[in-house]
């Protein structure tokens, strides 16, 4: 079967997760008070960002390391690093 | 490991590996650093590898490289909701040596390619992130990695660290990219038996097709979708500029599923099994977004230097060629014993004199034009479909009357002056 939603898509992938997040929301108040759209929760291709009412939950374990959130955050509120060497997503095909 | 190398290359993608391979072949002491578990583990591409620039690095590579299919047909679809206007070219000269281009799966290809650099004498170190360039007296003299005591020194550091190139940003070679300078693209690899691919795309074994899809594939936003045939799988993907994605509040994976369920697309992939899902940014700012590419002891290549021609979906070939030009520059600098910016600016000269910067210059206004004037994607594509439908539907209307009706509809919808402006603007952007 071909996938129908993001959960099924993410399930196809292999991740070697670090215990520490390589993505950091610098100030959750900025998300709460200045960013009604919380657009990172929309365009992130892996649905890493989820708004939980008062803070942004960052599911870094499923990150594709594309960089969109760093560039697309309207408030430059995301500190974006690479996961530790050998960690993070492992593409096996394309 | 020696304390100091002739050259350190950061990133084992097409650009970095091309550079490492060429330097190693000429006898330089090369360290190639890759952050993934293996070269290719972090690398993503729709899947078209061009023969010409690869052949310059490894003659007749197609005899041993892990390739999928030589592309013998390139189709272009202008797609509306329930229709498509298509054109393309299929030629058997592309089915024989020396070929034009190939579909590839990067995880395999990049490992093989990096292996060639290793065979030539480069030292490849995987699972290592370069945190920063070591700068002394205004000159890059090495890199600091995330390994214990992970400082390594070299005469030259080549930054092939990809679209995000945190390292060239740290050096102040460019500011953070804007959302309209990058395209967010997602794709799936869908397994499908070889016979089905051959039947559905009208191919023999060892023949491939690429389809580029404009219009409803991105819901009218600035971007494209694609379907490429591998041996026994398809790559299907879609991307728009990150700015368009933000403006339209699109979820990229929902756009991909929309594409997969589109009535023009679905019959091609039905029954297939998803094998991988991948997201990646493509640097699409073009000519004006190319950063400073050479400094004291440092050179920037490939995606890190924004070397992508989005209009012709060329990127990996530019990456490889820039890697080659960087290597030539390093080799000459080594002879001179001068790794200053003035010396390494030879790379800049080579780059700007090559097809890479000439092509980027040709299309320097294209991305901006199509971003600013979205009518090309969201108005003209549907109009083309309606015009073709009208023209080819036999309903007793004389053809000359049909032509008049079509022209009237177009000029009514957009206005005659605006149509002329649109045509002139598009021509200017790509001439």
TrEMBL record, chain A:
<dbReference type="InterPro" id="IPR012206">
    <property type="entry name" value="Fd_FixX"/>
</dbReference>
<feature type="domain" description="4Fe-4S ferredoxin-type">
    <location>
        <begin position="54"/>
        <end position="83"/>
    </location>
</feature>
<keyword id="KW-0535">Nitrogen fixation</keyword>
<keyword id="KW-0408">Iron</keyword>
<dbReference type="InterPro" id="IPR017896">
    <property type="entry name" value="4Fe4S_Fe-S-bd"/>
</dbReference>
<dbReference type="Pfam" id="PF05187">
    <property type="entry name" value="Fer4_ETF_QO"/>
</dbReference>
<protein>
    <recommendedName>
        <fullName>Ferredoxin-like protein</fullName>
    </recommendedName>
</protein>
<dbReference type="GO" id="GO:0051536">
    <property type="term" value="F:iron-sulfur cluster binding"/>
</dbReference>
<keyword id="KW-0479">Metal-binding</keyword>
<dbReference type="InterPro" id="IPR017900">
    <property type="entry name" value="4Fe4S_Fe_S_CS"/>
</dbReference>
<keyword id="KW-0411">Iron-sulfur</keyword>
<comment type="function">
    <text>Could be a 3Fe-4S cluster-containing protein.</text>
</comment>
<keyword id="KW-0813">Transport</keyword>
<dbReference type="InterPro" id="IPR007859">
    <property type="entry name" value="ETF-QO/FixX_C"/>
</dbReference>
<keyword id="KW-0249">Electron transport</keyword>
<dbReference type="GO" id="GO:0005506">
    <property type="term" value="F:iron ion binding"/>
</dbReference>
<comment type="similarity">
    <text>To ferredoxins from P.putida and C.tartarivorum, ferredoxin I from A.vinelandii, ferredoxin II from D.desulfuricans.</text>
</comment>
């Amino acid at each position: 079967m071909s996938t129908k939603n993001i959960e099924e898509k993410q399930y196809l992938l292999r991740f070697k997760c670090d215990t520490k997040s390589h993505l950091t929301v610098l100030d959750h108040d900025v998300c709460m008070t200045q960013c009604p759209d919380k657009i990172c929760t929309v365009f992130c291709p892996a649905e890493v960002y989820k708004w939980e009412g008062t803070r942004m939950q960052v599911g870094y374990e499923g990150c594709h390391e594309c960089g969109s959130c760093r560039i697309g955050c309207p408030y430059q509120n995301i500190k974006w690093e690479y996961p530790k060497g050998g960690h993070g997503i492992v593409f096996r095909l394309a | 490991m020696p304390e100091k190398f002739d050259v350190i290359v950061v990133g084992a993608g097409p650009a970095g590996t091309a550079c490492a391979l060429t330097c190693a072949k000429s006898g330089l002491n090369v360290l190639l650093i890759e952050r993934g578990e293996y070269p290719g583990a972090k690398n993503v591409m729709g899947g078209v590898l061009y023969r010409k620039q690869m052949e310059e690095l490894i003659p007749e590579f197609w005899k041993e490289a892990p390739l999928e299919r030589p592309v013998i047909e390139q189709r272009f679809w202008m797609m509306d909701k329930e229709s498509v206007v298509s054109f393309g070219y299929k030629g058997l000269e592309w089915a024989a040596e020396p070929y034009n281009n190939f579909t590839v799966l990067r995880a395999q290809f990049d490992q093989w390619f990096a292996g060639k650099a290793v065979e030539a004498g480069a030292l490849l170190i995987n699972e290592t992130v370069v945190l920063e360039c070591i700068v002394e007296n205004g000159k890059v003299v090495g890199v600091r990695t995330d390994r214990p005591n992970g400082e390594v020194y070299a005469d030259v550091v080549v930054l092939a660290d990809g679209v995000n190139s945190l390292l060239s940003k740290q050096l102040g070679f460019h500011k953070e990219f804007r959302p309209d300078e990058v395209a967010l693209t997602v794709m799936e690899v869908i397994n499908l038996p070889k016979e089905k691919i051959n039947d559905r795309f009208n191919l023999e074994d060892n023949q491939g097709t690429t389809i580029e899809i404009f219009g409803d594939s991105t819901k009218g936003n600035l971007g494209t979708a694609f379907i490429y045939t591998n041996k026994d799988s398809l790559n299907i993907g879609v991307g728009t500029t990150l700015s368009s994605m933000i403006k339209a509040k699109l979820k990229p994976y929902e756009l991909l599923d929309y594409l997969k369920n589109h009535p023009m697309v679905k019959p091609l992939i039905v029954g297939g099994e998803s094998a991988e899902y991948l997201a990646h940014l493509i640097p699409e700012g073009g000519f004006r977004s190319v950063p400073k590419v050479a400094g004291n002891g440092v050179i920037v290549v490939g995606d890190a230097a924004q070397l992508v021609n989005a209009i012709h979906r060329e990127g990996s070939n530019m990456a490889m060629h820039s890697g080659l030009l960087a290597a030539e520059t390093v080799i000459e600098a080594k002879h001179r014993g001068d790794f200053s910016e003035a010396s390494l600016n030879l790379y800049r000269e080579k780059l700007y004199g090559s097809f890479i910067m000439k092509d980027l210059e040709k299309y320097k206004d294209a991305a901006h034009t199509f971003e600013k004037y979205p009518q090309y994607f969201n108005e003209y594509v549907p109009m083309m479909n309606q015009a073709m439908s009208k023209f080819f539907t036999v309903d007793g209307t004389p053809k000359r009357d049909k032509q008049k009706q079509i022209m009237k509809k177009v000029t009514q919808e957009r206005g005659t002056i605006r149509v002329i402006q649109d045509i002139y603007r598009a021509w200017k952007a790509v001439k």
